[in-house]
Design goal:
The chain is α/β, with parallel strands linked by helices. The chain contains eight helices and twelve strands.
Length: 249
């Protein structure tokens, strides 16, 4: 089992537990996340969700060695990326949130990160593009030049810088992200769940048309990349643990 979830009163805590693969998402993990988030959506006794990884890493995103279909019926990629939610979801990030791991966090409503957390979008270094929402969610959550920096250099963003730029809501000591997220979840539970739900629904309505366009341009970019020589070179180099040799084609 690579996903474990538990109720803590009105809060559902969802844990990605595949640390031997840096919590990279394979088919089993995506199915586990879909099951957990379906429960959060459907159970009226649950008001808030928290998603986290293991103490050393949040998630390294897609396990590209498997090349599995990770789009789920209700939530899309990883069971969360395209999910239309009306209950708040908080990402509790320890260690790295890279590629799809960062995209999971961007798909949440709030992010609590330990001081040692780092966020990055290294897909371009693999001959890929960030295909799970970051091409439009990153420039919405961050200044556009910072989003551009992450997308085309593969650099990482520290928790402190992410907090200063507004993408992270709260920074905790190391090993404190989950406790911080749970404390925030309990604060949300003190508010009316109807008011919370309708606030999130109103916010979502203002960006839904932008999201549709964002998915269109993401699909266009991905279509070009997947038939390129650079994509093949990037995947081969990743599998062989060496630097890729790019052709620009």
């Amino acid at each position: 089992m690579t996903v474990r979830y538990e109720r803590q009163d009105r809060v559902l805590v969802v844990r990605i537990e595949r640390e031997e693969r840096r919590n990279a998402i394979d088919r089993e993990t995506a199915e586990g996340l879909e099951e957990a988030f379906d429960l959060l959506d459907d159970d009226d006794d649950l008001w808030v969700g928290v998603v986290t990884g293991t103490p050393r890493i949040f998630s390294a995103g897609t396990d590209i060695r498997e090349r599995a279909d990770l789009r789920m019926p209700r939530g899309g990629e990883y069971g969360i990326i395209r999910r239309r939610r009306v209950k708040p979801l908080i990402a509790a990030v320890e260690g790295y949130a890279l590629g799809g791991g960062f995209e999971i966090a961007l798909a949440c409503d709030l992010i609590v990160a330990a001081r040692t957390a780092e966020f990055g979008l290294p897909e371009a270094r693999r001959g890929l593009v960030a295909a799970s929402g970051a091409l439009f969610r990153a420039p919405r959550a961050l200044p556009v030049n910072v989003a551009r920096e992450l997308l085309i250099t593969g650099r990482t963003l520290s928790a402190e810088r992410a907090f200063t730029l507004g993408v992270v809501n709260e920074v905790t000591d190391q090993d404190g992200a989950l406790a911080g997220a749970l404390a925030m979840a309990l604060e949300i539970c003190e508010a009316s769940p109807v008011a919370v739900r309708e606030s999130l629904r109103a916010l979502d309505a203002q960006t839904s048309a932008q999201d549709e366009r964002g998915w269109e341009v993401t699909a266009d970019a991905l279509g070009v990349v997947l038939v390129s020589e650079d994509f093949r070179a990037g995947i081969e180099a990743f599998a062989q643990r060496r630097q890729p040799v790019w052709s620009g084609r």
